[in-house]
Each structure stands twice: as structure tokens, then as C-alpha cells.
Design brief:
The structure is a homodimer of 154-residue chains.
Chain A (H helix, E strand, L loop, with lengths): L17 H20 L6 H11 L6 H8 L3 H13 L3 E6 L2 E9 L1 H21 L5 H17 L6
Antiparallel strand pairs in A: 1-2
Chain A binds a DNA duplex (23 and 23 nucleotides) through helix 4 and strand 2.
Protein name (chains A, B): MarR family transcriptional regulator
Pfam families (chains A, B): MarR_2 (PF12802)
Organism (chains A, B): Actinomadura rubrisoli
Chain lengths: 154, 154
DNA sequence: TATTGTTATACTCTATAACTATA
DNA sequence: TATAGTTATAGAGTATAACAATA
């Protein structure tokens, strides 16, 4: 880490930091995504749980909680809701009857695709300002950072 | 908007959207920034209010609420706390005694600089993965988007 | 005894509504 | 009567803690 780009005297102001901008833009994106999901009867964390399940990142609820960076009791209520909507199935693992194995139903896959469509439409609003090329580069950087950061899923 | 980059059939999956990534990364950035501010006795919204005041975006509390995208009653409690820390002064506008004019004190400017330092250290954690050039491009894109999006400040 | 899931409870953040004072 | 600010209250979201079932 050199003096030129390192931690030494660097008069960068708060609104200029990545952190500040991620905090503010993240809040805006969360608000808009929440609105876009509302007609589906879902919140962002529901979409997060469906994603985790669909990607095979978590069969059990405990694994899902770990993958999402939330507490297991929250997964219970998220899963309750998704079961009510017919989006996931919860079956006891016959090998270890303490575990609840979560799987996405056909309806769940349909819902998840609708979540993705909602996110895409928010993308188009948010990124309307960026030319396609810059937008693609931005997406790559976001992916890089998200991949590194421990990535709780929503 | 052409078919190639437009809203037509485009099988982009939820975790691949900017929206999803901004939601998740924004949550991570908010968590880390909150931790980094804790030793200063501040929350991100306090830093947001100080920023708004220091930039002259809001003299009165009502203007501050509008600039931050929050409700006026929240500004009251944020300002209460900042007054208690000696970071801002609240004086009645002599021209209209209903208005409370907020100004940053010297101590407030010092605190705000400490907030910026905290954000920079979170930046270094988060963006350690990105080469300097890519990081700079990412910052530019973030600024562009934040500038357009209505920009509630924290 | 340890672990998975669940339920009951509490806490944090922020909004809404009612109120005060000034205009 | 309308507006800036304040106070009181309520709601959403999520965590912590106590508990039940299974290992």
C-alpha cells in the first residue's frame, strides 16, 4: 500500500466514499425492490431465501440462516410464509428428523422468476443514467465485491 | 430501447441484477459502517444529517428531512443527539421564529471528518478485491447513480 | 448432552398522529 | 388557518432467549 493510494493523508470527503454511496444507494435500491415485490406478497428476504434454496446453498433451515447472515428463527417465519404461498416445501430429513429440508416448488420457481423480473425493472430505473458499457462494468465490480464480502444473500 | 438490451426476453437471474447486488452489498456496507461509527457515538443517519448541514443543503430541520428522505420527527431526535455531542448548534431563525437553523460546530466538523475516516477504512476492507483502476471506475458509476436517484443522504 | 427447529419476547429503527408555537 | 417543530405512540423488522424434539 503506497502513500499515493493508501491510508495516509487523503482528504476524501464522506459523500465521496464507496461506503457512504453503497449505504445510500443500497437503501434506495432496497426501497424500490420492496415496492416492486409487494404485489407478489413478498419481501426482499423472501426472495433471498428462495434464491439460497434454489441454488442449493442450503437444504436445511440452519444452513439457510448461515448463508443469508440472519438468525435461524427468522428463517422459520420466512419459510412459513413461503410455504403458505406454495413456493417451497418443507420435509423432515428421514436420516435426521431434526432437519427440515427446503425445496422450491414449481410455483416457487415461477415466483422467483417474477422476483427477478421485478429486480430487472428496478435495474432499468436505477441504471437508466449509465451507458450500457459503463453499466456492465459496474455490474462486474458489484459482483466482485459481493462475491468477496461474505455475501449474505438479502 | 432496443430488443438487444431492452426489456424483452432476457433470462437474467435474480442474483445477477444490479438491484439484488446493491441491496445485499448495501446491507453489508451499512453494517460495517455502523460498527465503525459506534466508537464515535454515532449512527449512519447522524453522519447523514451532519453531511446535509455541512453542505448547506438544509438550514432548517424540515429541509434536512426532505434532503435525507426521512420524516421531520426523526430529524428532531438525530439533531437532539448531535446537539448533546456538541456537533451542531440549533438557533431560532429571528426572521421566522418557527424555524430551527442548524449549523455545524468546530467539534461537528471534527466529528464529520472522523466519520469520513471510518468510511474510508470500510472502503479499504470492501474494495480490497478491486484493482485501483477498477475501483475508481466503480466509484464514478456509484456517484452517477447516486446523483440521479434522488439521493436521500443516509 | 448437543443440535435443529420453534415460540415467546424484546429491541431498534422509523413512521404516523396529536400537539405547541409561531406565522 | 397554515407551517415548523416537538412529543407520544405505533408498526415493521429482526434479534435474543427459552423451549421441544431428535440425535
Amino acid at each position: 500500500m503506497t502513500d499515493a493510494e493508501g491510508t495516509a493523508a487523503r482528504p476524501q470527503t464522506l459523500p465521496g466514499t464507496l461506503t457512504f454511496q453503497l449505504v445510500t444507494l443500497g437503501a434506495i435500491a432496497t426501497d424500490r425492490f420492496t415496492e416492486a415485490l409487494a404485489p407478489l406478497g413478498l419481501k426482499p428476504k423472501h426472495a433471498g431465501l428462495m434464491t439460497v434454496v434454489s441454488r442449493g446453498l442450503a437444504a436445511s433451515q440452519l444452513e439457510a440462516a448461515a448463508a443469508m447472515g440472519v438468525v435461524p428463527s427468522l428463517v422459520v417465519s420466512l419459510a412459513d410464509h413461503l410455504v403458505k404461498l406454495g413456493a417451497i416445501e418443507r420435509v423432515r430429513d428421514p436420516r435426521d428428523r431434526r432437519r427440515q429440508v427446503l425445496t422450491l416448488t414449481r410455483q416457487g420457481r415461477r415466483l422467483l422468476e417474477q422476483c427477478a423480473a421485478a429486480a430487472r425493472s428496478v435495474d432499468d430505473e436505477l441504471a437508466a443514467a449509465l451507458p450500457a458499457e459503463q453499466r456492465a462494468a459496474f455490474a462486474r465490480s458489484l459482483s466482485d465485491l459481493a462475491g468477496r464480502a461474505g455475501l449474505p444473500t438479502a
